[in-house]
Design a protein that fits this description.
Elements: H1 13-28, H2 32-41, H3 43-56, E1 66-68, E2 74-77, H4 78-84, E3 108-109, E4 115-116, E5 118-126, E6 131-138, E7 145-147, H5 148-153
Parallel strand pairs: 1-7, 2-6
Antiparallel strand pairs: 3-4, 5-6
Helix pairs in contact: 1-2, 1-3
């Protein structure tokens, strides 16, 4: 266990991991990759660091959407949500342990007039400028949709 210089404050697991790597390099004069391989064998550091890292990890991925310039809402299907966050969906298609999903009572109506099961909303940062867009998570067979407002915010369409 390492402590911060001049303090009795305990370092976080990731800070311990970095300190351990630095000391391993200096003491053993090993290359970074060799020191890292030695650390892999010490499961304590990897398990603690991995848990902390996963909480802070921001994944960048491609999400296939159809541009729905006649739509008023961004739609993310539960099928896509499961691919993005498999650990947050039960076998019964219930979303669990997802504090980034907000319950929503908004009634969604499809273009042919059918009601769409709205599970909740989440914000996804989209495009190279990471513009936040609110998506309704729905239990539909259709594609993910980006509304006119979302298309305009991301400069995907322009109205002359």
């Amino acid at each position: 266990m390492y402590h911060h210089k001049n303090r009795n404050k305990r370092l976080s697991p990731s800070q311990e991991f970095i300190m351990y790597m630095k000391k391993a390099q200096v003491k053993m004069k090993l290359s970074t990759s060799t020191a890292f391989m030695k650390l892999i064998q010490e499961k304590k550091f990897l398990q603690e660091s991995k848990l902390e890292y996963q909480k802070k990890e921001h994944v960048v991925m491609n999400l296939l959407v159809k541009l729905d310039t006649g739509g008023n809402a961004n739609i993310l299907t539960l099928r896509s949500f499961k691919q993005m966050y498999p650990e947050n969906v039960t076998e019964n298609d219930e979303i669990i342990n997802a504090d980034f999903v907000t319950k929503s009572k908004t009634m969604l109506i499809g273009y042919s007039g059918e009601k769409i099961n709205n599970i909740g909303t989440m914000t996804i940062k989209c495009g190279k400028d990471r513009i936040p867009q609110v998506f309704f998570i729905t239990q539909t067979d259709g594609p993910n949709l980006l509304s006119l407002q979302g298309c305009r915010a991301l400069d995907l369409v322009k109205i002359n």
